[in-house]
Structure formats: structure tokens, C-alpha cells
Amino acid sequence: MASKFTILLLIVFFQSSSWAKSASTLENFIQCVSINSELSVPVTTTLFTPNNSSYSSILQSPVFSLRFLEPTVPKPDFIFTPLHDSHVQAAVICAKQFGLHLRVRSGGHDFEGLSFRSESQTPFFLIDLVNLRLINVNIKDETVWVQSGATNGEVYYKISQKSKVHAVPMGTCTSLGIGGHITGGAYGAMLRKHGLAADNAIDALIVDAEGRILDRAAMGEDLFWAIRGGGGGSFGIILWWKITLVRVPETVTIFNVVKTLEQGGTKIFYKWQQVADNIDEDLFIRAINRVVASGTNSTDRTIMNIYNGVFLGGIDRLLKIMQASFPELNLTRKDCTEMSWIESANFIGLFPIGTPIEILLQWKSAAVPPALFKSKSDYVKTAIPEIALEGLWKLMLEEDAPTVMMIPYGGMMNRISESAIPFPHRKGIKFMILYQSNWQEGDKNVTEHINWTRKVYNYLTPYVSKNPREAYVNYRDLDLGRNRNNISLREASVWGQRYFKGNFERLVRIKTKVDPTNFFRHEQSIPPLTL
Known about the structure:
Elements: H1 4-15, H2 23-36, E1 47-48, H3 55-60, E2 79-80, H4 85-97, E3 101-105, E4 124-128, E5 135-138, E6 143-147, H5 152-160, E7 166-167, H6 178-183, H7 191-194, E8 201-207, E9 213-214, H8 216-219, H9 221-227, E10 237-244, E11 246-247, E12 252-260, H10 265-275, E13 283-293, E14 301-311, H11 315-325, E15 336-339, H12 341-348, E16 372-380, H13 386-398, E17 402-408, H14 412-415, E18 431-439, H15 446-459, H16 489-500, H17 503-514
Parallel strand pairs: 2-4, 3-4
Antiparallel strand pairs: 1-2, 5-6, 6-10, 7-11, 8-9, 8-10, 12-14, 12-15, 13-14, 13-17, 16-18, 17-18
């Protein structure tokens, strides 16, 4: 328990904040936190207000989408950085007791910034899980327990130090925070072989709306189902995930093949659509489409199709598979490099080949740095015709720095039921699309860049999934709708059906059961029936 002197210091510390409604409210909140948590260090080392010199760096450091750091965007009135599970528990108990709204951040990659900003609920404070990043690997049981603030890269690295033939099927971006990542499903380069990280999660610890710390047995199967793909910020705060390790070969093969339109890129990409979800499930081929300069004239531009491949095996078997299924890519031995799985995690995370694996321990990814961008997502069930692809390339050439990335599905993703977890995008999905427009600080055409993503999204309407038009909840998109102060279940179902399809109704029922007062909420959280 904190000393009276520490509590007094914290009261003085908070009285300088504009967030404070009254000294008595703050004193009660501080005392409540002290009583309900195991604070072994002065409270002032874990709490930051705008008057603190560290506030801005703590708020901004992990943020991936920089446009939500603009001065006009509401900021948290204070940031709490817990050092122990009980600190998170205490924050929930006390926030609920005194009617304080909160947001929770594990890695800061929310595409709409909802883990650290609030449009509808102000004032609010931020619980940042950055200090909760323990990783306990058990090779004998083939499991790993991970705290929510740990990143994909840290988990990959720690497992590799215990075993060269074990891994976890999580995301390609190495700086993603585990807590929020798995709540949305979490796909990576092994999704065709082993499914999503959420498919492989077998236990968790969560702080629920009553401030209880619950494991799978205590929370029950309904809530455990909901948190594995039902999106973050609706059901509680994830403290830990327990994930099953999967076996990987000692040697994997990676390749990177680039084609342009002038090299027959459209026809090659059309063939990629036909084979990427049906090819051997040991093989993952991501397609990234970008605009690049062509020729000597700086104004001439073309489309570059980049095929990133990771194969769970050696070069010889890979070349046989590619020759039989995708000869159009003309993959050769010199295009391929054999390496360990942990080295391939660097490659698919967009680090140059040969980058030391210790870079996975970096909190921020130098390969995919924070940026100003707007994104949208889609799912495709039938190959997009070549004539439509030509129209897509034309639209891309209208934008300064667009990216259109395609992630192949199939394999294990076809064999898992749509209702196994809330993530429903399974059998029949050929690939997912991520549209993204990027711009630089100081750009005067931000609205035009954002509108470009909407324009290309509208253009591809005839060629993507329908009824509903599906979207990936971890690529959150407020264009699909948002909760207002007066939450409408009918309005929420518009985006809810796109993210979760028929699973949305079950998520609503579970939300109603475990958080009927809607304590955990944000602009796209699951609403309870009672509101």
C-alpha cells in the first residue's frame, strides 16, 4: 500500500491537471487505487499528466497512426502505466467507482487511434500496458504465456532462444502489441498452415467490468470465445494470453519477386489471385502493389507488384511447387534464400535480409515506422478480372503514395468454422485487401488522400464480398459507422455485421451478460442489448 506521503504527492500532482473535477474526487480516486493494488513504487512514477515533461513522449511514442496526434484530437487527461496486474485491476475498480472513462493501449497500432483517443467520451484517461511485457515460454508443454504489452517481435525472439523449431502464428508487423492484436484475430505468414493467433489461444487473464481478474475457467467459455476475435475494448482488459506453440522446420525459404506492368504484371497478378489460396499451405505469398517511378522522366510512373513469399521448407520443394502451380512468376533459385524461421520473421516484417534478429526486440519497427495514413479493408471470393485490375492501377496512379496489399487465405483458414471464434472470414475467402493512402507531414491535401481510399474502395465494390461486405476488425474503419452517445444496436449492426457477420448477435448477447452498463466502450465497441 502506498504511504500517506505518496498519496499526498499524487493529489498535488493531479490538482494541476485540467482533468480534475475536484480535489476530493481526485483524493478518493488516488486512495482507491492505493487500497486496491500492490504499489511497490511511488505512484507518481506510473502516472503522467500534460504538465509532466514525459507526458507527450509516453503518449506519442508507440502511436502508429500519426494523424491522431494532431492538436485538435482530444488527448487523455492522464496516462497510467501499470507495473503489475493488480494495478490494472485497481484502475478499473476505481474508474467505475468514480465514473471515469478509460481507454486501453497495448501497442498503439489501432488504425483509428481508438486505443488512445476518444471522440465521444471526454474527459478520459489512458491505461498504457507498455510495462506489462513478460513472456514465459514452456517448450515442454509447447505453450507460451504473454503479457499484453509485449510485441510480436519480442515473442518471436524469446521463443527462438528456447527452440529453433517452435513459433507462434501471429502478425507480420513485429511491433504490434499482443493484447489488442489477438482480440481482433491476428493473422500472419502462417495463417494458411496454422490459422490465426486467436485460433491458437488456449487461455487468458482478463480484468472484467467488475474489476475481477479471471482466467478461462473463471470467465466461462462464452466470454473466452468473445475475446478471441471480437475486437478490443468491449469486454475487459486482457492481461495475459496463453498461446499454443506450433512446429516449424529448421529451414524455411523466403523470396521477393518484383514485376511491373511493363513486365506483364497484370496477367501475373491475375494468376496470383487464382492460385494463392489453393497452393500448398506451407507457402504464403503476399502481394504488395505500389506506385514507382519508371524510366528517366521523374513524372513517369508505373505499378510495381511485389510478391513476398515464405515457405515452410527448403528451396528444392518450393521450386517444384511453384513450377507446377505458378510458373508465370518465373521464380528461380537465385530469387530464394534459405534461413531459420526467426530470420524469416524479420523478412516478412520488411527488414532487409541479414538484419540481426535482435532488432525484433525494438519497441518500434524501423521497417514499418509510424506514418500519416488512412486505410480500409475488403475480402475477395472471386478473382478480380484483368480489366478491373487495369482500372485499379489507373486509380493508384492518381494518388501520391498508395499501397494496395493482398493477403492470401485458404488452407487451414478454410477448415475452421466461421463461428469457431468471432473472426468469421474463413471458407471461400481467396484473399484480404488492405487499401492505404500515405502522406507526409505538412501536406495540404490530406482530405484528398483520405478520399482516395474511399474512391478505390467504392470502385472495387462489384468485385468483393457482399451481404455483408466484410472487413477486418484489426484494420478498424470508422467510415463503416460508429457508436454515438445514444448507442443504437441497429446502427452498430451495420459495422458489426461487416466485421463479425453472424457472430455479431452472439457478441451482443455476451456483452449484455458481462458488461450490461457498457463500462468498456468506444466508437466501435460491442453494445449491450439494454442500451
